[in-house]
User: Which sequence fits this backbone?
């Protein structure tokens, strides 16, 4: 299987400030399962902004699943906050599972 990966980076500079955006989208599928992955990151050191995202989509004969996680730094305490979400459907059991987490 010919899996594709797309990566990119954009830097914006203005008045001595730099904002950076990095992104990635990948097809990590196999002959028996579809799997797509994505991630991005946005940083701006001047405002102490750092935002990160990862996501995955999976579909195979047994399970359909979607998950995402975010991690961000945008507060005076300089602490990272993290949240995640996962939705999964078990096709064999005909059961749905939802997980939501947030901490930081």
Assistant:
């Amino acid at each position: 299987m010919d899996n594709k990966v797309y990566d990119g980076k954009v830097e914006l500079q203005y008045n001595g400030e730099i904002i950076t955006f990095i992104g990635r989208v990948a097809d990590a599928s196999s002959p028996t399962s579809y799997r797509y992955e994505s991630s991005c990151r946005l940083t701006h050191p001047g405002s102490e902004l750092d935002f990160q995202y990862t996501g995955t989509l999976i579909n195979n004969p047994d399970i359909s699943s979607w998950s995402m996680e975010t991690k961000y730094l945008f507060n005076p305490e300089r602490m990272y906050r993290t949240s995640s979400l996962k939705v999964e459907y078990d096709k064999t059991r005909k059961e749905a599972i939802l997980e939501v987490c947030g901490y930081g």
User: Anything to note?
Assistant: The radius of gyration is 17 Å. The chain has a mean pLDDT of 92. Residues 39 and 95 are 28 Å apart (CA to CA).
